[in-house]
Design a protein that fits this description.
Chain lengths: ~160, ~80
């Protein structure tokens, strides 16, 4: 009888130790600290990507980006006008002569790069003749969203 | 006495999920240039595209081979259609 009680007590002690260790490993403050570090890393990545994008833009593109969160690029090979918007999906608009959106392109670099790096990569590729052609072959074509507003040149001058 | 001239540094920005990693090399050091060339070739083999210019503020164009004259390189991962 005493042996049974002793064995049960040992099992209880072991169980208590395991629970304590699990609590220390997965305690809420540890999860919060991990989450906070992940957020900080994400913000750092975003800042670095924005610095890189900013130095690739011309002064006019930079001003446009600051004001409207998008910028225009002329294709090096096709001479098409593109507008690169700050969006995660289908963010390259192919513009017609009257600034209407003909269609959109959905293509981005692999590897989970920050959005500003996506835009920088698209800018670099559209500005190079060989890279532009390659990008056009790889992109998925998406129709413009219904009722998409024309982007007036007057808005740029304002 | 002449002032010592600052070494000319080449800079490679490699886009990744952290924003980008930076690799710099002294253009006068054959060892560092070789190391940069090796990193370049490695990334190209992984499907990266390289855009380069001789100076930082110049427009960049696509290059297929490492060129020590290009001081500013940006390595862009391969594209995926959305």
């Amino acid at each position: 009888m005493q042996r049974l009680i002793g064995a049960a007590l040992v099992r209880l002690r072991t169980l208590r130790q395991r629970l304590r260790q699990a609590w220390r490993r997965h305690a809420p403050w540890r999860t919060a600290a991990r989450n906070a570090e992940a957020v900080r890393a994400q913000r750092r990545a975003k800042r670095r990507a924005l610095c890189l994008l900013a130095r690739l833009l011309t002064p006019e593109q930079r001003q446009e980006f600051r004001k409207h969160r998008c910028f225009h690029v002329t294709g090096a090979a096709s001479s098409e006008r593109y507008r690169i918007r700050m969006e995660a999906v289908a963010n390259i608009e192919v513009l017609g002569a009257g600034n209407e959106v003909k269609h959109r392109l959905c293509v981005h670099p692999a590897g989970g790069v920050p959005l500003y790096d996506v835009m920088a990569s698209q800018l670099l590729q559209l500005q190079d003749p060989v890279a532009e052609m390659r990008l056009l072959q790889q992109a998925n074509i998406v129709p413009p969203p219904p009722g998409s507003r024309l982007y007036s040149e007057l808005a740029l001058l304002a | 006495m002449d002032r010592a001239t600052a070494p000319l540094l080449g800079e490679m920005s490699i886009m990744d999920s952290s924003g980008h990693k930076q690799l710099t090399w002294d253009t006068d050091s054959p060892g560092e240039v070789a190391m940069a060339r090796e990193a370049f070739d490695d990334l190209i083999a992984k499907g990266y595209s390289a855009f380069a210019s001789e100076k930082k503020m110049e427009a960049k164009h696509l290059i297929g081979e490492f060129n020590p004259a290009m001081k500013d390189l940006i390595m862009v991962p391969r594209n995926v259609g959305g």
